[in-house]
Amino acid sequence: KNQVEQSPQSLIILEGKNCTLQCNYTVSPFSNLRWYKQDTGRGPVSLTIMTFSENTKSNGRYTATLDADTKQSSLHITASQLSDSASYICVATGAGSYQLTFGKGTKLSVIP
Amino acid sequence: ETGVTQTPRHLVMGMTNKKSLKCEQHLGHNAMYWYKQSAKKPLELMFVYSLEERVENNSVPSRFSPECPNSSHLFLHLHTLQPEDSALYLCASSQDHWTEHLEPQHFGDGTRLSIL
């Protein structure tokens, strides 16, 4: 069964600090890995999409990494801002598929 | 502004009511989706439409009935819902429905549905 596990479930950090969110997936055959940001009361917004051949992709202060051998991905946030407070959702997609397998998300709170 | 608009944003209805959720996308996309988001659970795909044809119905109860009159509009008709149907219903669109094409899905802000 295709699954995506994210850790931690929630995280509180001080403004200006860095943090790393983790994602493990068991989707097979695998095509690509996505990270979304979901602000409270809003829909998810795409941050990055990486194929199995890519190791890293950046979007501003967000940097995603992918290890297709160990089926792990991480999202690193640099110099966090209050506006980074949101849920971050890891999504794995299978080859030849139109379905996305979503994780439950990590809820990040950035405090002053 | 994501280019995907959902109405209403909030809906409270009794179990015997009939209501409809509306989604409109202004991105020129060919695929549209309905998702259900419940607390502490991953997003669940409900329906996929590609060029107005239903591609997927993920074992969704018949009390949920989708309609896609054209590639810009998507509806979810609701009737005789249960309390466990209370959730955030998200609409999304993408250029096409094949995820290998690396096109992101663009989500609306959802309709928060509460069943009394």
Describe this entry's structure for a reader:
The complex is a heterodimer of chains A (112) and B (116). Chain A is mostly beta strands and 112 residues long. Helices cover 0% and strands 59% of the residues of chain A. Chain A is built from no helices and 11 strands. In chain A, strands 2, 4, 5, 9, 10 and 11 form a 6-stranded mixed sheet that branches. A 5-stranded antiparallel sheet of chain A has the order 1-3-8-7-6, with no helix packed on it. In chain A, a hairpin with a 4-residue loop joins strand 7 and strand 8 (72-77). Chain A is globular, with a radius of gyration of 13 Å. Chain B is mostly beta strands. Chain B is built from no helices and 11 strands. In chain B, the strands form 2 sheets. In chain B, strands 2, 4, 5, 6, 9, 10 and 11 form a 7-stranded mixed sheet that branches. Chain B is globular and about 40 Å long. The N and C termini of chain B lie far apart (31 Å). Classes of the chains: A mainly beta (112), B mainly beta (116). The interface between A and B is medium-sized, with 26 and 25 residues.
Q: Secondary-structure blueprint of this entry?
A:
The complex is a heterodimer of chains A (112) and B (116).
Chain A: E1 4-7, E2 10-14, E3 19-25, E4 30-38, E5 45-51, E6 56-59, E7 62-67, E8 72-77, E9 86-94, E10 100-102, E11 106-111
Parallel strand pairs in A: 2-11
Antiparallel strand pairs in A: 1-3, 3-8, 4-5, 4-9, 6-7, 7-8, 9-10, 9-11
Chain B: E1 4-7, E2 10-13, E3 18-25, E4 31-37, E5 44-50, E6 53-57, E7 64-70, E8 73-79, E9 87-94, E10 106-107, E11 111-115
Write a brief caption for the model.
The complex is a heterodimer of chains A (112) and B (116). Chain A has strands at residues 4-7, 10-14, 19-25, 30-38, 45-51, 56-59, 62-67, 72-77, 86-94, 100-102, 106-111.
Features:
heterodimer, A: 112 residues, mainly beta, 6-stranded mixed β-sheet, 5-stranded antiparallel β-sheet, globular, B: 116 residues, 7-stranded mixed β-sheet, 4-stranded antiparallel β-sheet
